[in-house]
């Protein structure tokens, strides 16, 4: 019988043979249990928005510029006032010890080595203090909990732990209906827990329900559906950290965020995991970026959802993004080979972005924002 060491060795070898993120996805799918893979890969409803996120990217084409000196290229940029070696941050994803024993710790070490911000989730399986101890730039993602005081306590805890920004997710009053998880009766194994919630709040995610997903039942009990702009204003007034709103698709919402002093918005449909039929983020991006600029700027625009390579990052920059978040690809790397797998994912993105910049006639990230992008039918 094969043991875990054998499987890990095979997975590590698979990452060496991964020449793009599609290769890494195949490695992860081969090593993960089916219910865990479905939890990572799945979307809500009939998964129309999940598919549309990729289809929208695939319909975008860049008008490359020529006769520009691209003999020296750089992917260096700044995100929320801090230097980053590429315009990419690792998105918040819950329960990463489902995929590897070290979970968020391995992913955070890889992000720090790659010079990319790492976002710790409210539902992280590792406490924020342990993740910030890894080093690098760490952001903290907040869900608005039924007890607002607990949310604000988490914000203070993240600030005290050394996080560089707070990211409030605003598109999850409750978890979208995810059929794969419901069919699987998905529940967390005993060794995986929400490290930032107390034992009572965590327990529902572990007990298999009679029907459906235990994780969905858990989040419905823990999250508040009453989050409003007044709560955003309160959080803004209580923290000195840069504040990011994740889950913005409407230009009017982006403009309101600027008015409240938000430092960045993430154009996102939650990776196709909330409203099935929601607009793909890359389609919403130009109008959101325009609304932010018209509202006075001073607020960065990030894109989340569907990014699967360096050319996708180039397209997002050209459409008005300051950077992107990647969620599923680092998880593929984590499942395949832990820290080394996540680092391989980020190295692939960096290499592909440098290549795409040069072939498009851009010596750096700033020049990519001057490119024209055409959407084909």
From TrEMBL:
Listed InterPro entries: Aldolase_TIM, Alpha-hydoxy_acid_DH_FMN, FMN-dep_DH, FMN_HAD, FMN_hydac_DH_AS
Positions annotated to bind FMN: 92-94, 141, 169, 246, 268, 304-308, 327-328
Cofactor: FMN
Tagged with keyword Flavoprotein: yes
This protein's record includes keyword Flavoprotein: yes
A family per Pfam: FMN_dh
Class of this enzyme: oxidoreductase
Active-site residue numbers: 270
Binding-site residues, glyoxylate: 143, 178, 270, 273
Domain FMN hydroxy acid dehydrogenase: 13-377
E.C. designation(s): 1.1.3.46
Stretch forming the signal peptide: none
Family indicated by similarity: Belongs to the FMN-dependent alpha-hydroxy acid dehydrogenase family.
PANTHER family named among the record's database cross-references: 2-HYDROXYACID OXIDASE 1 (PTHR10578:SF107), S -2-HYDROXY-ACID OXIDASE-RELATED (PTHR10578)
Protein name: 4-hydroxymandelate oxidase
């Amino acid at each position: 019988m094969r043991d875990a060491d054998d499987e890990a060795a095979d997975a590590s070898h698979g990452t060496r043979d991964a020449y793009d993120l599609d290769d890494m996805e195949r490695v992860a799918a081969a090593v993960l249990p089916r219910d865990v893979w479905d939890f990572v890969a799945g979307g809500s409803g009939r998964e129309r928005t999940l598919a549309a996120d990729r289809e929208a990217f695939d319909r975008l084409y860049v008008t490359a510029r020529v006769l520009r000196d691209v003999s020296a290229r750089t992917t260096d940029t700044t995100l929320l006032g801090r230097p980053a070696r590429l315009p990419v941050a690792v998105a918040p994803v819950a329960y990463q010890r489902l995929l590897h024993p070290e979970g968020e710790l391995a992913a955070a070490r890889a992000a720090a080595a790659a010079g990319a911000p790492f976002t710790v989730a409210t539902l992280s399986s590792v406490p924020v203090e342990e993740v910030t101890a890894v080093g690098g730039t760490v952001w903290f993602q907040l869900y608005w909990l039924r007890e607002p005081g607990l949310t604000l306590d988490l914000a203070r805890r993240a600030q005290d732990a050394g996080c560089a920004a707070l990211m409030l997710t605003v598109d999850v009053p409750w978890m979208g209906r995810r059929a794969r998880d419901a069919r699987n009766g998905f529940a967390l194994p005993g060794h995986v827990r929400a490290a930032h919630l107390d034992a009572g709040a965590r327990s529902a995610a572990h007990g298999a329900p009679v029907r459906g997903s235990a994780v969905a039942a858990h989040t419905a009990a823990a999250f508040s559906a009453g989050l409003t702009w007044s709560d955003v204003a309160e959080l803004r007034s209580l923290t000195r950290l840069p504040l990011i709103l994740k889950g913005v698709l409407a230009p009017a919402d982006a403009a309101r965020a600027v008015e409240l002093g938000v430092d960045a918005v993430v154009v996102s449909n939650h990776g196709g995991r909330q409203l099935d039929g929601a607009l793909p983020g890359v389609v919403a991006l130009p109008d959101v970026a325009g609304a932010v600029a018209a509202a006075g700027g001073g607020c960065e625009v990030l894109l989340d959802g569907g990014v699967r390579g360096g050319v996708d990052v180039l397209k997002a920059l050209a459409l008005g993004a300051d950077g992107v978040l990647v969620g599923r690809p680092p998880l593929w790397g984590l499942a395949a080979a832990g820290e080394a797998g996540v680092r391989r994912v980020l190295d692939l993105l960096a290499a592909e972005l440098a290549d795409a910049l040069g072939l498009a006639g851009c010596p750096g990230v700033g020049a990519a924002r001057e490119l024209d992008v055409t959407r084909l039918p």
